[in-house]
Amino acid sequence: MAGVVVVGAGMGGLAAAARLAALGHRVTVVEQGDTHGGKLGTLRRDGYTFDTGPSLLTMPQVYRDLFAATGAPLDTVVDVVPVDPVCHYRFADGTEVDLPHAEEDVPAALAAAFGERSAAQWRRVMADAAHLWGLVGESVLQRPLGGLGDLVRRSANPRDLAAIAPWRTLRALGRARFDDPRLRVLLDRYATYSGSDPRRIPAVLSVVPYVEQHFGGWYVRGGLRVLGDALADRCRELGVRLRFNAPVTGIDATPTGVSGVRLGDGERIAADVVVSDVDAEVLYRDLLPARSARRPRRALRRAVPSLSGFVLLLALRGRTPGPRHHHRVLFPADYDAEFDAIFGRAPRPVPDPAVYVCSPDDPAVAPEGDEAWFVLVNAPRQGPVDWRAPGLADDYADRVLRVLAERGLDVRDRVRWREVRTPADWERDTGSVGGSIYGTSSNGPRAALLRPRNRGPVPGLFLVGGSAHPGGGLPLVALSAAIVAGLIGPA
After folding, report:
1. Is the pTM for the entire model greater than 0.85?
2. Which CATH class, in words, describes the domain spanning 3-39+58-73+221-303+439-488?
3. Residues of the chain where predicted confidence (pLDDT) is lower than 50
């Protein structure tokens, strides 16, 4: 039985802890904050409940596999329900479209909004994405990668590597395959699922809309935080020790392996294995001895950090007229201006952003007759922009509400109260550098396909979570935990 310390109680860390405990290891999770879940946070106030992080679950089978491998099945502990439509989109010209939960219904919805030709073009791109998913879904996303050579070797033949085409961007794919600029905007949006710029992200990430449509979009009754609570409970059932308010200040390691972690109060916890669920940049910059972190530090310096997010939590009186939409996206007239503002040479709050709204039709999240809205716009990180500057957060919150009003969703006279979360808040609360939601972006083929490895540079050190392979998002961090558990093996 190995003594395992997991640093960080985000979803990747909890998933790794549960799997390793089920394999017979003695596991302790140490978390700098006062609760579990990482970016899967929650706010409860005056009868309103908000997910402050992810609001959609894709690939729920990943969590079904996790819970089945560690005890009672997922569906016995949480209520996972389909979101239909998955999202309501409004384009700058006023066109609206609902993307259905069922994959087979998507072409008809697109045909009604954009015409049969556009629907046929989308269908062909998704057929190609299905082929790409067959190439990367298991061989890349569900296995450890040791570098570019690994990726090339896993391409069964040169034709497969040509299909992945890491040199082609998602933007180039959209321009080549779609006549309608609105379809290109829709495809571009999926770059933001990894905190990236569609003009730089590889076209292989067209698998993201394919995965959403093929596996569907899902919600957990009561909010996705309920999934995090269930995973923390599973850890406790397996004997995992969860310690909160226990910041790690260093990992003891020599070239022969790790030996433990040091806490902020001077306590040392011995360990045969350390699993890091902190941002890879924080791990290699602050926690690991410099001699052990030299090569991964160099690699991270070449990567582009992911975008962050500016969030409004709105407690609204009354109901919004018209059909209920769990998710809405309202696009600007100039989507490129958003990516210029975030990834350009002079980062700044986006003047006219795309706005994402999550408003679950769930009686558990708001008083009867009212609504709880999570409103998100993409934003540059803390650092390039000082989100702590006096007045900036409130002024920008007012701007976002004005943008909503200009696009047909004026809720300003319905706001009972609001809370604002900036990239500076994400940095403080989650430890992510600058509040980057996904660690590094997928801007460029190396960043997209070769994130920091799950096996660390010294024996006994492993990485999970959104900044490590295979990437960010609820399903991928759980896959990273399965990879790490497989590398460590049974006790």
Report:
1. yes
2. alpha beta
3. 1
